[in-house]
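Anyone else keep sequences and structure tokens together like this?

Example one:
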Amino acid sequence: MQQNLNQTVNLSTDRLFAQALIHIAPERYFWYQRIHHVAIDGYGTSLLVRRVAEIYTALSQGKAAPPCPFDRLQAVLEEDSAYQTSEQRLGDRAYWLASLADAPEPISLSSQTAPASADCLRHSDNLPAEMFNHLQRVAQQLGRAWPDVLLATIAAYLHRATGATDLTLGLPMMGRLGSAAIRVPAMVMNIVPLRVMVSPGISFSRLVALTGDRLRDIRPHHRYRYEQLRRDLRRVGGGRRLFGPVVNIMPFDYAIRFGNAPAIVHNVSAGPVEDLAINIRTQGQAIKLEVDGNPACYSLEDLVRHQQNWLAGLHAALEHPEQLVGTSPALISGPNGATGNVIKGEPLNSPVQFVLDRFIQQAQLQPQAEAVIEGDLSLSYSELLHCAQEIASRLVAAGVKPGQLVAIYLPRSQDAIAAILGILLSGAAYLALDPEALPARNASLLQDARPTLLITTTAQEPQSISELPPQIWLDRLDEFPTTASVSPPADNTLAYVIYTSGSTGNPKGVMVDHLALASFVAGALQRYGVQPGDRLLQFAAPHFDASVEEIFLTLCSGATLVLREESMLQSIPGFLRACEKQQITVLDLPTAFWHELAFCLIHGQASLPNSLRMVIIGGEAAHSERVHQWHEAVGNRVTLLNTYGPE
């Protein structure tokens, strides 16, 4: 059966169906049927199966087959043709465009995106009859249908797992009520977006009411095809989606008999899965659950965990419908303690390149583009490359060899960026020191690392450290001899050395080579999507590891690095106003600073720049409560990436 399902069907020349009766035991048969979704949907299949069972039962009892109850397919086609040219279609289109105009990108329980997969992973389970009865009783108490309650629990789980407050689910609708299609086995079903707003302060009963009201609002517009809506909203290709997980609730009972023989329906495949599909079907007094996942996005363990978390939330909601959504049971963690979107390692889309090669390519592609901004000063890519080459030539002339270490004693500045690149161009590795640190710490690091040279300026020259290595002053660079030319190192040599804080003992030096740096930059660029036109704030000083991410992701992608000024830290509102002025698109912040920023946003004391699309946090654990509050205040407009890990 699986082999048959995997066969590609040519819609123009191949049969759209396959049928087989498989005899596996003296009194047990499998009736396998595969019908292409272009020809029939789930409800149409139930009509077909019931008709065959009806004929079989009549013939087994020696009776004539009853008249065929089906209407003509032509009637369905005529209905659709009339709809395509109707005022109703125009009204439906206008409704959907207005409803989804400001909708954020749909959320997912996976950090991966992939094309729809014909194969899928599936985890199946049964909702016991007692729980189904409880579900129906609670629905009756709330004055709603039981599918409304189930949809609300799924929305609540997605909110708890991701922190998102603006959710769009995919909801298949039969589209047959009041239509000739009610008696025609055909493909009529459509998938409509169900947009639900959730916040931790909302009660479950209120969420059920909002979900039910939203369902009531969208039903009159369910005939407008989702394929066309994707085109209207420009969400075709490139991993763009119209909705997140698809929830298919099939309240029609598949229980059938062939004469005296009972039959059980097994859904082998519901069709291609883009992300996650939750299929819910009634079986007598119980409910059959099938969670299908795109294997490029989920493992089977993921599906089991998500289903267990959702069912735990369902049970809690049925017991206490008035509880707040945010007070549901704790989520079962994944293998790494993850409960929400955890970024997994993935293959790189392109070969790894050394950072200097990437930077030089950007300088050649867009020489006049802004590379580094410091206050009112701006360096283009060609100017920054020239500055780095000038420094590199002095280092080589001074005898610096590949793999040797050169220290930098400079604050966050264009000089520091040029010095880092110049050292790398010379073949050496850099060690950034903190000019504001105690002299004893810097003296200790210099004694341990023993750099060949130290780059600084006459204004920044260390005054309280003995036994300094020979120095090159950037403001007197012309006084130092130069070589004819320099070129990036071709071998995997040392790139930089960075020291730990020493909070648990003596500071420890960490040596990072060019290949490790290049691999990190390639992976981060692929994940963050930094590109020309982005403007990243260099928040960290050069001696912090976060500066490596800020500097090289920017300069290797053709983006602009904007250096933070000390005055920006006087207040959070002032910081955000400065970011707005500089049109910052990506912020890379220490978690402690982000906690303060999020607090101001939550309490309406500040607002994020309109230009901002992503915030990256790290350095320490983020408080889960503050993350939820952030999502409540910001929604999905700005992507939040926690690079440190769970609390």
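And example two:
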Amino acid sequence: MANGSRRQAGGHAFDVVLVSMPFNVCVMPPIGICGLKSVLDAAGLRTRIRHFNLEFLPFFAPNLDVAQALHDEISYLWDFLPGEWLFSPQGDGNADEVFLQALREAGVRAEILAILRELRPRTADFVERCAERLLADNPGVVGFTSSFMQNQASVCLARAIKRRLPVVKIVLGGSNAFGEMGGALAEQYPEIDVTVCGEAERTVVPLMRALLGANADALGAIPGICYRVDNGVIVTPDDKREIRMDEVPVPDFSDYFATLRELRRVNPGGRQLPQFLPIETSRGCWWGARSHCTFCGLNADRMGFRSREPVAAYDYISEVRRRNGISRLFAVDNIIDHRYYATLLQRLADSGEPYFIHYEIKANLKRGQVDSLARAGVHKVQPGIESLSTPILKLMRKGITTLQNIQTLKWLTEAGIQVSWYLLYGFPGEEEGSYREMSTLLPKLHHITPPIELAPVYIERFSPYQMTPEAFGIEITGPTQWYRMAFPEVPPARLARMAYRFDFNDRHRDPALDVFVRQSLRPEVHAWRRSFGAHGPTLHLVHGPDESTLVLGSLASPERLIRVAGVLRRALINADAARLERRLFEPPDEAAKVLEVDAGLYRHFLAVSPGLRDTRGLDTPLGEEEAVALLETRGLLLREGGAALALPLVCRASALENLLRIHAESLANVAS
């Protein structure tokens, strides 16, 4: 009561406090609420952000670097919802042991299991501390962002706030509240006054003003929200109007940095945070609008692609860097705007700034586009490879082939761009033969970037699999078992409306297929990862003006150097990009010239390179069909559907000059 009286007498220190609870990753601030803070501030509403996910770090370990690594490892386990379970209602210990045993069987590390067990009884204390700190801000409205594993922690804090000060209004938004999930959350948790069920830039100001002014009539006019009234929850129609990118401001990360400074004053470490700052240059997916990938639930019901104009995107990125002094940026876009290869990326390259940018891309790249990424400082990408089987890619509606995927992986590896991708399996309609072919292919690819893991496909909300399962011959059986264990308080029917991932039954699936994947394909993937992790790229071509050299082993310390000439050289040059087999032996066009190094540089490389020399090498007089067969047998050429792709990476002039410079510096150091 005293707090309520003080509120009425003195007003709010902050009109709105936005909150990020565990388990949002700590390596970068959450762009959603940081952007909304900019919107609210511009409207004259005093706003701050409480980054309680950061303030949870000392519960893991005294050193912030150790704590952040452990926290974010758990964040990336969101398939299994350990973060939701951690803050879920605590019943008897047997249910907890069942959950932890399930995590153990899923392959979660013993150290993480021990941390989860140790943290579980301490979450209540953490929530109480958060409530005390938040209410010291004297807010009128508290807004939670929730994605991945933030529901239970947000509800716990909302409950603690309402217990202390019921007049505070609670709003929850984010991807966990999109569509019918928002209504289910509002129905289940009376602590939540409003859920926002879609994009919020256009509605957040009128929503906050209505709540601060206790204007229930105004709430009814705001589209796409669920709000509480005495006799239940009212859902306002969503007008489905997509937010234009010029309505999305530069995010305000100041509270994230303030929280870090406060933590660093009393805890060692944390100097490497943030590892990235998030940026957003587009929403939606231009490919998904044309052909919705069967398993993808991103973008919910707002697939329409919207992007910043290239000049505006450059100004936006420059402003994020200028304000924060950080050039490591993580684009949260689902797919890069294809216009950016010739526009935005060129301006970034010309700026001279040492950017390190992450983007999601489609894997149908041209070599020149990979070069544009590298020059601009896009040193990390997620290309949506998903599979190395054309029949399976067709089942996904990816609009791409195995050769295109491998071509893109080859060029990205060659450019030194980090590639993040998973090899997925478990698609309705797939056949064992596709995986048998894949298992013979993988050993030929140990010189290019491997997948992070072989992982099962999930049924995600808003995906075609979830929206129309009957079209794929599958049956949705309910939310995954992890939801049932992490939300034991939620009735099954409502949980089905809250969940993002679902279990399914595919009665047409041959169990032998899964046995093959586990016993044969998974070991091949792990062997690929071990090989690349230990040795890196180990198959290169250096093209001189008249001949080429195949380099086996690392470029810096090759095991063998094999001369390549004649029709074999011509085929490998022409097949740098996938090409019809009937055109492999045409004279190389002008585009092939960019693959060659000049004669002096080529001779210098051969003169200083160690390794066993094979001067005759691949220069045997052969017919065209014999040449193709030989290259395929040697693992240098991959054929599919009448086309062929050369597998070796090409070491071009700039990379070779850099290699020789490092070699000369090494010799100079030895001499001194």
